[in-house]
């Protein structure tokens, strides 16, 4: 029995140290084997579910070393994510952005628009639009949002004038990103709207090469931006922890991390497990961030408030 107990404790200790290492050293997990590093980073917060299991397993045998080792990944997880737990909302700010992947198969245009309008945004960003959807949303939104820009499957509507806009070429052969300069009460803000390519989890692993290429091209466009104030909104098909989005995320901050509460998961809509719909920024102060109620899409909408 004593030998069995040592083996049991050894397994708990090993698993505890392994979990702590994954959480602490995830950046060093290589991507050259099925893109394992990016896959782990996409769902990294969920690794915390292993912590209470390990603590219970360690407590059953009452082995002090096993208990200490089981607590270690809990400390690492808490250090990584404790800042996301409290509500950091700091007022309404000067303007609000709502972004949503509406899903090309979504036929409930009016109901979806109603959910977005209930948040009272100043700028609405929609991605994965069909031509029919774009026209349908335009009919609902144009009276309240007289200014707009649309390229391919991505669009925005604004209560403030759109001074100029142009496609951001992601080398796909069709438009999935653009830049629009919006004059908000005399303050110019560069808005980037994007829907990066999807990733897949299959027999080849976490396939994301094309998504990564579009992230690099979008990152280059943002790096060349001349305006100081920048907002990027849309579906990036990746979390801000995913190293493959570094060309974007090293330049911009997450509104959810700065001014939201919790992880703000957006996908899949019924049981969200990852935040792949983002509002990122620089040159502004994020004063609020959140996730709206589900629509007929497989993504949930996100909102963010900003102040100059």
From TrEMBL:
Pfam families: Exo_endo_phos. Signal peptide: none annotated. The keyword Cytoplasm does not apply. GO terms for biological process: DNA repair. Keywords: DNA damage, DNA repair, Hydrolase, Magnesium, Membrane, Metal-binding, Nuclease, Transmembrane, Transmembrane helix. The chain crosses the membrane at residues 7-29, 35-58, 65-84. Its cofactor is Mg(2+); Mn(2+). The keyword Glycosyltransferase does not apply. One of its GO terms (molecular function) is nuclease activity. It comes from the Bacteria. Residues 100-299 form the Endonuclease/exonuclease/phosphatase domain. InterPro entries: Endo/exonu/phosph_ase_sf, Endo/exonuclease/phosphatase, TDP2-like. Coiled coil: none annotated. This is Vancomycin resistance protein VanJ. It comes from Glycomyces artemisiae.
């Amino acid at each position: 029995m004593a030998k069995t107990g040592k083996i049991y404790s050894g397994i708990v200790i090993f698993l505890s140290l392994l979990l702590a290492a994954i959480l602490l050293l995830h950046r060093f997990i290589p991507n050259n084997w099925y893109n394992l590093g990016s896959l782990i980073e996409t769902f990294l917060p969920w690794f915390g579910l292993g912590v209470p299991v390990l603590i219970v397993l360690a407590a059953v045998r009452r082995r002090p070393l096993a208990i200490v080792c089981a607590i270690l990944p809990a400390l690492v997880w808490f250090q990584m994510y404790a800042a996301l737990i409290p509500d950091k909302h700091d007022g309404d700010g000067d303007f609000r952005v709502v972004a949503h992947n509406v899903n090309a198969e979504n036929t409930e245009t009016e109901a979806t628009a109603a959910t977005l309008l209930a948040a009272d945004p100043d700028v609405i960003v929609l991605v994965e639009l069909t031509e029919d959807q774009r026209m349908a949303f335009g009919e609902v939104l144009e009276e309240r949002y007289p200014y707009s820009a649309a390229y391919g499957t991505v669009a925005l509507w604004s209560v403030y004038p759109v001074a100029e806009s142009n496609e951001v070429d992601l080398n796909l052969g069709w438009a999935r990103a653009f830049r629009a300069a919006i004059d908000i009460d005399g303050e110019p803000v560069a808005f980037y709207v994007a829907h990066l390519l999807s990733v897949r989890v299959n027999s080849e692993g976490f396939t994301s090469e094309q998504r990564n290429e579009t992230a690099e091209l979008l990152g280059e466009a943002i790096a060349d931006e001349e305006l100081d104030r920048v907002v990027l909104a849309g579906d990036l098909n990746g979390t801000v922890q995913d190293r493959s989005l570094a060309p974007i995320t090293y330049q911009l901050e997450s509104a959810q991390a700065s001014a939201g509460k919790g992880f703000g998961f957006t996908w899949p809509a019924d049981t969200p497990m990852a935040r792949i719909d983002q509002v990122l920024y620089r040159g502004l102060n994020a004063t609020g961030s959140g996730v709206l109620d589900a629509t007929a899409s497989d993504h949930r909408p996100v909102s963010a408030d900003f102040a100059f």
